[in-house]
Amino acid sequence: KARALRDDADMLASRYDYPLCWIEAPELSQWIASPRYVAGIHDARSGHLHPLKYCLGLARAAAGLGVRLHEQSAVTRIDSGRDVVTLHTDAGARLQARQLLLAGNVYLHEFAPAVAPKLAARIMPVGTYIVASAPLEPALAASLIPSRSAVCDTNFVLDYFRLTADHR
Q1: Which residues in 62-97 are b (16+ Cβ under 10 Å) and which e?
Q2: What gap in Å lies between CA 132 and CA 162, rounded to an integer?
Q3: Is the pTM of this model over 0.85?
């Protein structure tokens, strides 16, 4: 797995001029206190974020630009016209728009056959889980991920985690 990770990092650097910091096994303890990992890469230009705060920030920014948001308006059907899309809601309302962004959570695949049949076959259900520990002592938290980096593995169903501001 370390070889494949290194190959991916080298490809990103050569093909896209996106260099990553390669971390050999002896250096890993400076990044994470775990025997589970055999090598790593650090992407200094990436980051981690709070998904809900990000979503709310995007909504605020869009609303500030004049975008109308229609929360709690379940769409039951979408009719695509040449220049306009018509959305039908569960309350019987119709809304027209020049552009439509279909966004949903892991349950979108359940509604897509009725709402967006052309997309239904291309939507794969994905499960993700978020847990948090009780707050840790700051020194213990700092010893577990000294770099305070977000961490993920390379498994098909990957694990990812980070420390929170309150040391969880």
Answers
A1: eeeeeeeeeeeeebeebeeeeeeeebbeeeeeeeee
A2: 10
A3: no
Strands 75-80 and 85-89: antiparallel
Decide: 123 and 109 in contact? Cβ < 8 Å: yes
Phi, psi of 5 (to 5 degrees): -65, -45
pLDDT in tens, 24-80: 999 999 999 999 899 999 999 988 888 889 989 999 999 999 988 888 888 888 888
Question: Which residues are CB-contacts of 86 (< 8 A; sequence separation ≥ 6)?
Answer: 78, 79, 94, 95, 96
Contact yes or no for 112/120 (Cβ under 8 A): yes
Amino acid identity of residue 155, one-letter, is N
Alpha-helical regions (H) of the chain: 2-16, 51-64, 108-115, 117-120, 138-144
